């Protein structure tokens, strides 16, 4: 006759088996899906595209793709030479990341498409002047002139000189000539008056001198 302990043991055996299987599933490492990557040799003469889900898989496929016999190979980022040697860091990298395989004694060197540090713009000159002649009206004879000055390639100042039409230009020219004639006439009047005063003073001095000489002679 089966005892209570035998019945309990028979019930616990399936539960123990299920628990061990669940533990194996939970502790098993997650398999990451394969992603596209690019690899190249240290001198960038050989380039390959590979699919890998882990760092170890990528390293193994890189050795075969680039026909590297040495097993001491280090994967670095092709853009800046950062060493990739942990699975955690590898999983943070995006798809199509470019790697470089370095064997023992080889060093990373920047490629031809490496962006250099930004340098300040060169100043070719102090001031650059640009003249632009344009017309607001097709009937304009001369048109307008735009003068733009750029200093040190950073600051710019512009000024528009608007020339008028032919009639307005002649009208302004006549106005200027009329004003100049008035000024010239006034100058001639003032100059003539001044000369008359000088001549009158000179004649008075001559007369006074002659009278003095006559008085001395008669005495």
Automatic annotation (TrEMBL):
GO terms for cellular component: cytosol; lipid droplet; nucleus. GO terms for biological process: apoptotic process; lipid droplet fusion; lipid storage; negative regulation of lipid catabolic process; negative regulation of multicellular organismal process; regulation of apoptotic process; regulation of macromolecule metabolic process. Gene3D superfamilies: 3.10.20.10. SMART domains: CAD. Keywords: Activator, Apoptosis, Lipid droplet, Nucleus, Transcription, Transcription regulation, Transferase. Residues 33-110 form the CIDE-N domain. InterPro entries: CIDE-N_dom, CIDEA_N. It holds the Pfam family CIDE-N. It is found in: Lipid droplet; Nucleus. It catalyses: a triacyl-sn-glycerol(in) = a triacyl-sn-glycerol(out). Its main location: other. CDD domains: CIDE_N_A. Belongs to the CIDE family. Homodimer. Interacts with CIDEC. Directly interacts with CEBPB. Interacts with isoform CLSTN3beta of CLSTN3; inhibiting the lipid transferase activity of CIDEA. This is Lipid transferase CIDEA.
